[in-house]
């Protein structure tokens, strides 16, 4: 046997052994890999992966965590911007198998979403006028000062006429997140809201004196160095006429104010009390009534032209209490309207008889007085002295408003100078019925009743038939 043949046998034997080993090991390894995979499946968990605008954000334990955070942020931004800015998030979810995931809570989701829009906002102070956003500024104290300065400017124009000025608008300043596009300088905000500013457009206008001065200087330079003036003019134009940011028209509205105190009357009230001794339909004045007085302080509002538009009472103090007018009203059943043959006094006589029956001298003249005068206050009741029929109820030059009643047996009575007549010709009246009120009409020297008693048209002294 040759050496070559002797060496070949061990090589074939080793290859066979390797083939046999591979045939055993590979399946074993495959089984081990499958086992490990199955082991991982059994030990891991299914989680919800959330992504915003295609970018994975992390795991959430519930779909609602991300969705609620998005709704909360949208609500916050909508409120802060008056609906001018609405974030639009493309939120998606997919299920994944993972080990030991760390879950985001709702606050974490909110912060992730906020980071996506944060660059459009800055913290500042928003000026609201009548609940509408006007502009944002970085300093709330300066905004407050601006409002005060505007009030000062308005008052300076009319300080010699009015006490103060009042802004009509609902103004508030809120510290909040603000859209960067809402920020303005304090001068820009002043132009937006100040009603007495001279600027009437959003483009800055050149000062006439400055324009004239610069034009002269440009002319001098042009003479010395032709061609340079054109460049200077362009630079000046850009500097003086730079367009300002667009701004809303939010001019404040205002009223001028004066505070005054006036004395006013407090009208008395009329109180009625029942009187069982008076007939129904008759009255008796118990208390005349006196108006009271009070001092009332008013805030008077004027428009910008000085026209009064409103008067607002601020306070009042009573300086004199009113005294009620008290009237006694009859509740006694009305008797038949027939003469009784006996007379009663036709009115209350708290001051007695001011002028009796017979001859008298008055105002330098001597005359025969046909009745008696009974003074009292205006409006006090006049009653029929006895039952009868009204034969006259009208006005005459001398007697003024007067009534005449015919009684039995040729008797009649006359009631003159009445303030008010309450009966008509033809009325049947009973004794004590109210026929009018006391006054001073006609030829009268003061409030009183002129009362006459006649028999067949001839007058007699009324005291002869009136009770003592």
Itemize the secondary structure elements and their pairings.
Layout (H helix, E strand, L loop, with lengths): L2 H41 L1 E8 L2 E6 L2 H18 L10 E8 L4 E2 L1 H12 L3 E9 L2 E6 L2 H19 L5 E4 L3 E9 L6 H8 L14 H17 L3 H13 L13 E13 L3 E10 L3 E5 L4 E11 L5 E13 L4 E8 L25 E5 L2 E5 L2 E4 L5 E3 L4 E9 L3 E7 L4 E11 L6 E2 L4 E5 L9 E8 L2 E3 L8
Parallel strand pairs: 2-4, 10-14
Antiparallel strand pairs: 1-2, 1-3, 5-6, 5-8, 7-9, 9-12, 11-14, 12-13, 15-16, 17-24, 18-23, 19-20, 19-22, 20-21, 21-23, 21-24, 24-25
General description of the model:
The chain is of the alpha+beta class and 468 residues long. Among the domains are: 47-120, no CATH class; 259-327, Resuscitation-promoting factor rpfb (Resuscitation-promoting factor rpfb fold), CATH 2.20.230; 335-464, Glucose Permease (Domain IIA) (Distorted Sandwich), CATH 2.70.70. The protein is built from 7 helices and 25 strands. The protein is elongated and about 130 Å long. The chain starts with a helix and ends in an 8-residue tail after the last strand. Mean pLDDT is 83; it is low at 1-15 and 199-248.
- Whole-number mean pLDDT: 83
Largest sheet: 9 strands, antiparallel
Query: What is the level 1 CATH name of one domain?
Result: Mainly Beta
Structural class by SSE content: alpha+beta
- What share of the residues lie within helices? 25-40%
If helices are DSSP runs of H or I spanning 4 or more residues, what is the number of helices? 7
Work out the number of β strands: 25
Rg computed from alpha carbons, rounded to a whole number of angstroms: 54 Å
CATH topology of one domain: Glucose Permease (Domain IIA)
CATH A-level architecture of one domain: Distorted Sandwich
* Outline: elongated
Spatial separation of the terminal alpha carbons? 190 Å
Q: Stretches where pLDDT falls below 50 for ≥5 residues?
A: 1-15, 199-248
Relative strand content: 35-45%
CATH homology-level superfamily of one domain: Glucose Permease (Domain IIA)
